[in-house]
Write a structure and sequence with these properties.
The structure holds 2 protein chains of 2 kinds.
Chain A (H helix, E strand, L loop, with lengths): L17 H21 L6 H6 L6 H13 L3 H12 L12 H17 L5 H9 L1 H34 L3 H39 L1 H10 L1 H12 L24 H19 L1 H8 L4 H17 L1 H14 L20 H9 L4 H37 L5 H28 L3 H25 L5 H24 L2 H6 L7 H25 L31 H18 L2
Helix pairs in contact in A: 1-8, 1-16, 3-8, 3-12, 3-13, 3-16, 4-14, 5-11, 5-13, 5-22, 6-7, 7-8, 7-16, 7-17, 7-18, 7-19, 8-16, 8-17, 9-10, 9-14, 10-14, 11-18, 11-21, 12-16, 13-22, 14-15, 16-17, 18-19, 18-21, 19-21
Chain B lengths: L1 H7 L4 H22 L14 H20 L6
Classes of the chains: A mainly alpha, B mainly alpha.
């Protein structure tokens, strides 16, 4: 996503009425009020960093989805669906659902039983300090970077949509998030994420409803799109993926299935601590397994409020939107499709709710980033390397300070983003560098007891560096695109998918090779960390309807039906 | 959710959700009624979306507040 050229437009999209301003102001007061109310309950490290491990499956599941919704999701993917059509839905379906179910059924028991505070914490237990530190450092850097870029993206949207000053938006939103997360820790972040989940849905849901009424339903919308953009297929998810050059994404089905579904999505949903932290807060193992599965049902439905508005934009907007990089005064970019649709259907009151939904999305993402950053810094870097023994209260204070420091760094990153129009593309790619190989390292560690400490570290390092190497090679010399992404027609997103796939393959290969020439750890050290040495608690005699595996199967079945319906 | 509240006497998150939806519902509903005879220049304004959407939020918010309100004995 590129935003800087969007500032060329001096005219704001909408004007807010007093009722809209009241709705936005009440939202800010509510999130702050909840944060300070919960401060009294965040006394110990377990409270502050893991919400006391008391969350129900529903609360953890909604927070799990909400923390992800903020990551440029609403505007970015609505814009992508205007640009690429329904192909963007792959990131919500094959790019999420199998991975979320896999997290719940297979991986969550290990995270939960090991009582780790974080994903690098699991690596510490399984592979030792080197792999854990590598993962913690890269995660901390990427988290504050992403937080800053999110912040800047929100500020630009507020500038374009409402005419608000960029500095005002950055400081007001970040100080608000900083205050409520520093006050109540993960308690506060999760409570507000659940609140934000409802606001996002109720604020954005009217757009597809009114849009479908205007177009006369799905068929009417498709007919209008074909009329406005003749000869292009925007409404099928698998049909146009036979060849790279047959779709605007420059994508092939192998990239979606193996790069996105098998590696990128698995890596993000099962090892990115931003989302996993929410599930670790669950009150028992059944809730921890159910949380991502509950989240998967809502994730499956998110295209209704993100992808469908982009498609409706293709059908009903009088002007054609353009890439942000080629934006001229008077034009709008793909990323503005959601605000444009909001302005099209929503008058006073509803407009305020819609804007609040956008703000809530960004704040949920920001809070997710800073709370995860505070935990990883405190438990995976500060405690093992700087101060090993200190009272629990000391680490809670460190977490509070880290939240504020993380936000200050994020604000710096936000200003840095202003100077680089395409920094978001690079940050997204940077984030991918560490996630795909990390999945290989964590999964092998859980499933194969033979994997040694050295193998975990060298596999992760090799995967990360190979991913960076492929990215740099493809940027410097486009001829490498045909080598790594299998076709010269592969575009940026396709390149990312194959880059993730190969980096995970390299990580696994190096891990296996190093394992074969190094000494394995004794079995007794790996209890609770490896599948074959762990007694995973079962649900016992609970009925079918209370079993996570049953609901996981239902989620997969609905996911498959969606693939067939929109094939 | 109930267990969490009982353990620490934390007001359930669903109650906060209900209160906010109720407040927003009232504001949007009243705003929709106020513009009934002079709707804004948005597409499909004749459907008076703020009235029924505000009403829906009031009902949902009201249910959440009623079901999850803090109990005196908690």
């Amino acid at each position: 996503m590129t935003y800087a050229p969007a500032l060329l437009n001096s005219e704001r999209l909408v004007h807010l009425a007093p009722v809209d301003l009241a709705i936005i102001a009440i939202y800010f007061l509510a999130v702050l009020g909840i944060g300070f109310y919960l401060k009294r309950f965040a006394k110990t490290g377990e409270d502050f960093f893991l919400a006391g491990r008391e969350m129900t499956a529903w609360v953890a599941g909604l927070a799990f989805v909400s923390a992800n919704l903020g990551s440029l999701e609403l505007l970015g993917w609505a814009g992508s669906s205007y640009q690429y059509g329904i192909l963007a839905a792959h990131w919500y379906w094959i790019g999420a659902i199998p991975a979320m179910v896999f997290l719940g059924i297979v991986m969550m028991p290990f995270y939960y039983i090991s009582k780790t505070h974080s994903v690098p914490g699991y690596l510490q237990l399984r592979y030792g300090s080197a792999a854990s530190a590598l993962s913690a450092v890269t995660f901390a850097i990427m988290t504050v970077l992403m937080s800053g870029v999110n912040m800047y993206a929100m500020a630009v949207v507020m500038k374009v949509v409402l005419g608000w000053n960029i500095n005002f938006s950055i400081w007001v939103s970040s100080v608000t998030v900083g205050l409520y997360v520093a006050a109540g820790g993960l308690f506060s972040a999760i409570f507000n994420e659940v609140l934000q989940f409802f606001l996002i849905w109720f604020g954005a849901l009217l757009i597809p409803i009114l849009g479908l009424i205007e177009t006369g339903g799905w068929k009417g919308m498709v007919a209008r799109i074909q009329q406005n953009f003749p000869g292009q297929d925007y409404t099928h998810i698998w049909g146009p993926l036979g060849r790279f050059q047959d779709n605007p994404m420059g994508m092939h089905w192998t990239g979606i299935v193996f790069g996105l579904g098998a590696v990128q999505a698995m890596g993000y949903w099962t090892t990115d601590f931003l989302v996993v932290q929410r599930v670790l807060s669950a009150k028992d193992i059944r809730s921890a397994k159910m949380a991502p599965i509950i989240g998967s049902f809502f994730k499956m439905a998110v295209p209704f409020i993100v992808i469908l508005p982009g498609l409706l934009g293709l059908a009903v907007l009088p002007q054609h939107l353009v890439p942000a990089s080629s934006l001229q005064p008077g034009q709008y970019s793909y990323n503005e499709v959601l605000p444009l649709m909001l302005a099209r259907y929503c008058g006073p009151g509803l407009l305020g709710l819609g804007i609040t939904a956008l703000v809530a999305g960004f704040m949920a993402g920001m809070a997710g980033n800073v709370s995860a950053f505070a935990t990883v810094w405190t438990y995976d870097l500060y405690r093992p390397f700087l101060r090993k023994t200190a009272p629990d209260q000391h680490y809670v204070s460190m977490g509070r300070w880290c939240t504020m420091i993380g936000l200050v760094i994020s604000i710096g990153t936000a200003y840095l983003a202003m100077g680089f129009a395409s920094i978001m593309d690079y940050v997204q790619a940077l984030f991918g560098f560490f996630i795909a190989p990390l999945f290989g390292t964590v999964l092998l560690g859980m499933l194969w007891k033979r994997v040694s400490r050295a193998a975990g570290f060298w596999g992760l390092l090799a995967g990360t560096f190979s991913s960076i190497g492929m990215f740099v090679a493809m940027k410097l010399d486009p001829r490498y695109v045909a080598v790594f992404a299998l076709s010269p027609h592969a575009k940026a997103l396709a390149q990312d998918m194959y880059q993730a796939l190969w980096s995970c393959v390299i990580c696994v290969t190096v891990t296996v090779l190093v394992t074969l020439v190094t000494k394995p750890r004794p079995d007794e050290e790996l209890k609770g960390l490896v599948y074959s040495l762990t007694e995973v608690q079962q649900e016992g005699s609970v009925g079918l309807i209370r079993r996570p595996a049953f609901w996981g199967a239902v989620a997969i079945a609905i996911f498959l039906v969606l693939q067939i319906v929109f094939w | 959710m109930i267990k969490m509240s009982e353990k620490r006497h934390i007001v359930p998150v669903w109650f906060f959700v209900g209160v906010l939806l109720l407040i927003y519902g009232c504001l949007i509903f009243v705003s929709g009624l106020a513009e009934w005879s002079n709707p804004p220049s948005t597409v499909l304004a004749e459907l008076h979306a703020p009235v029924w959407w505000g009403g829906l939020l009031i009902i949902l918010g009201g249910v959440y507040v009623a079901v999850f309100r803090p109990k005196k004995d908690a």
